[in-house]
Amino acid sequence: MAFTDERNAKSFFVERVITQAQKEGVSVSESERYMLAWSESDPTFTQNPALTRQFENETTDKIFEEKVIGLLKRSFNDDLRRDGASKETYQDAYRVLNQGDHYLLVMIKSALGSKLKKWWFF
């Protein structure tokens, strides 16, 4: 799958997190979904101060990031077990998303960074 823009790449990762959370029975609140999409560079992202405050009242950045990192790792491993070629999809989405400034990149890099680098980039 080729990702043509950051929005599609971000949607791929958000969908992977949400799907994995559903599989595991882990709740993802409206404010957490908002934070998964949070971006400085996505022109389609709309800042919502109410959701930001709700997020701050519900959890901390550290707890949220740890939750998402775990979900991303397990999603990646599950997808890889089902289809070894899925690694290329993750790599392509990461490459495209990494062109912008997205909060989700912090968690992707922590969860999968070394697994998504192409060997020739070392």
Q: Given the helix and strand composition, which structural class is it?
A: mainly alpha
Rg over C-alpha atoms, rounded to the nearest angstrom: 14 Å
Number of strands: 0
The count of domains is: 1
Helix content: 55-70%
Helix and strand element order: HHHHHH
Q: Spans with pLDDT under 50 lasting ≥5 residues?
A: none
Q: How would a textbook summarize the main sheet?
A: none
Count of helical segments?
A: 6
Summed over residues and divided by their number, the pLDDT gives a mean of 93
Overall 3D geometry? globular
Measured between the Cα atoms of the first and last residue, the distance is 24 Å
As a percent range, the share of strand residues is: under 5%
Question: How does this structure look, described?
Answer:
The protein has one domain (6-121). The protein is globular and about 40 Å long. With 122 residues, the chain is mainly α. It has helices at 6-24, 30-37, 49-58, 61-82, 86-97, 104-116. α1 crosses α5. 69% of the residues lie in helices and 0% in strands. The chain contains six helices and no strands. The model has no long low-confidence stretch (mean pLDDT 93).
List keywords for this structure.
6 helices, 0% strand, 69% helix, mainly alpha, 122 residues
Secondary structure: elements and pairs:
Elements lengths: L5 H19 L5 H8 L11 H10 L2 H22 L3 H12 L6 H13 L6
How would you summarize this macromolecular structure in one to three sentences?
The chain contains 6 helices and no strands. With 122 residues, the chain is an all-alpha fold.
